[in-house]
Amino acid sequence: MPWISGRLAFSTLGCPGLPLPEVAELALHTGWRGIELRSAPDEPVHVGLSAAGRRAAAETLEGAEVLCVASYVKVASGKIDDERCVADLLAEAALAADLGARAVRVFPGGDDEHGDARAIGRLRSAAAQLPGGVEIWLETHDSHPRGEDVRRVLSQVDDPRVRAIWDARHPWAAGEAVADTQRALAPWLAHVQVKDNADAVDKTPVLLGAGAVPLREILRAVEGGGYDGWYSLEWERKWHPGIPPLADALAAGNDWVRSLDD
Fold first, then answer.
1. Partner of 133 at 20 to 30 A CA spacing, among 52, 90, 163, 189?
2. Contact criterion met (CB below 8 Å) for 224 and 209
3. Rounded to an integer, what is the distance from CA 230 to the centroid of its chain?
4. Against a cut of 0.90, is the pTM above it?
């Protein structure tokens, strides 16, 4: 297997509502050992879980690598006040800590010209109150799709516990060159999400290597920059229920990983 073997993960966005024992089974038997746990009321993992439920979840996932709790907190949004946003973020961070996850994923979600300032203030405030061992990972997404957009925020937050996720699709679809994304995110890069699409407009997932997202170029860029973290398949079956099951996408992903040596 190529150099990224052993650093493969998946998001439970690809298996919506799947019971945690079956999620653990996927992680332990497909070669994709890391997990991003989607945190939402319709999932087995959410902030409403009791202490006993959190302990049971952590025990069920033992042996897998829980990388992050994928929250839907939008740190740049003007539709929620600062206090509530920070409280929501910290609740997700507490869940991450209880599950043994390294981080909580957040979105930008900006909706006006004040998005950067909101995100900077909220991320600084939350970082100062994080449980030990948990980070915040801001994803290249929605209002901040490019590496440059995330860099603009994180450079001013200036806290080592607040880092970046490079979602392979969004900077590319926004027209940012891979080398520019890598340079922008390198000081903060914590995690890479891989996915593929037919083109920059169609968001329907296709199997890794079957689309136009420059995945090989992205891998070369981040590895060349010294990245040694995980590569997580974000197979968006929650939003595209007609695509193949996650298990099929992981199997195809293994074929693609093997092809990287070609």
1. 52
2. no
3. 10
4. yes
Mean per-residue pLDDT over the chain, rounded? 97
Q: How far apart are CA 29 and CA 5, in angstroms?
A: 14
Residue 206 to residue 202: CA distance in whole angstroms: 10
- Are the CB atoms for 138 and 123 separated by under 8 Å? yes
Q: Please state, in angstroms and rounded to a whole number, the distance separating the CA atoms of residues 39 and 61.
A: 15
Confidence category of residue 1, pLDDT binned at 50, 70, 90: very low
List residues bridging with 166 in a β-sheet: 192
pLDDT of residue 122: 98
| 8-259 under CATH 3.20.20.150, yes or no | yes
pLDDT of residue 145: 98
By residue count, the chain amounts to 262
Q: Which residues pair with 135 in a beta bridge?
A: 103
Query: What pLDDT is stored for residue 80 in this prediction?
Result: 97
- Residue extents of the structural domains in the chain: 8-259
DSSP 236-249: -TTT-TTSPPHHHH
CB neighbour list of residue 35: distance below 8 Å, 6 or more residues apart: 9, 10, 11, 12, 23, 27, 61, 64, 65, 66, 67
